[in-house]
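worker-3 :: picked Syntaxin-binding protein 6
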Amino acid sequence: MSAKSAISKEIFAPLDERMLGAVQVKRRTKKKIPFLATGGQGEYLTYICLSVTNKKPTQASITKVKQFEGSTSFVRRSQWMLEQLRQVNGIDPNRDSAEFDLLFENAFDQWVASTASEKCTFFQILHHTCQRYLTDRKPEFINCQSKIMGGNSILHSAADSVTSAVQKASQALNERGERLGRAEEKTEDMRNSAQQFAETAHKLAMKHKC
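worker-3 :: tokens ->
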């Protein structure tokens, strides 16, 4: 069983919560934490997890989970409601980066994900969850690559496709209208020529009768 599956089963399932995503992280700037603050258990792995309750109304939260060295179990540490998240900073919008910051109402953390792709996946899930479950004040996503804002990218792509299709259809109609206009002009010219020919032929016929 993977670490994330184990976290979901051990930390969130007993509370009737569903884990949507998680990213393994390390601090970019280490805090000076007293030995007793970690329970005297030494080194540990840290995961930032996003979860929602199964019961309605749905509540979403971000939880810091740790696994201490030599232990197979996980420990729930800090937790914030999603409404407390104020800003998500992707650090660099122009390249793949594993670094990111999370700003809450009462906390600020600077992290480095295990990989840039893992951060990207977590950000996509986080952005989608904010759009779905937060109705009032949504967190600000800054310095994020366009691919991270998955939903918006898809919508923008679809909108661009529709706009392009409309423009092509309009152009085709205009071209067709121009062709029809030219055809009508030619038809009118031919009708006038035929009428003139008929009148000339009639005059010649009357002249020969005389």
